[in-house]
Amino acid sequence: MMQKYFILVLPVLFSAAAQLLIKQAALKEWKSAAWLLTMGGSITAYLLAFAAYSVTVKYFPISVASPVNTILVMLLVISGGAVFWNEPFGLRQAAGVVLGISSLFFLLSGE
């Protein structure tokens, strides 16, 4: 049972990592070695997310896998932005996080 949810979360982790790496690359000098390395990491993470997601939809209905993927990536990226780059995390973001978590509860309660 737990392995099934690991399959659901794996593409989320890769996709969130890819987006956070893009943000990190944006802070580097354009086309520098650090920028190229960070962008390469992001592209690799997106490819891994794509591969992992293709396995996920084998075990979960796409009507569950896609929204769960989107919501969890959103939650991780919002948190990462606040933690790593001190981006705003106010009432609006907190409300979005609470609603996102609530929607996950409803989406996954039948699985």
Detail the topology: elements first, then pairings:
Blueprint lengths: L1 H25 L6 H27 L2 H24 L5 H18 L3
Helix pairs in contact: 1-2, 1-3, 3-4
Description:
It is a single chain. The chain is mainly α. It has one domain. 85% of the residues lie in helices and 0% in strands. It is built from four helices and no strands. The protein has helices spanning 2-26, 33-59, 62-85, 91-108. Helix 1 (2-26) runs antiparallel to helix 2. The protein is flat. The mean pLDDT is 94.
Note the beta-strand portion.
Answer: under 5%
SSE-based structural type: mainly alpha
**What is the typical, i.e. mean, pLDDT?**
94
DSSP, total strands: 0
Nutshell version of this structure?
The protein is built from 4 helices and no strands.
What attributes characterize this protein structure?
mainly alpha, about 110 residues, about 85% helix, flat
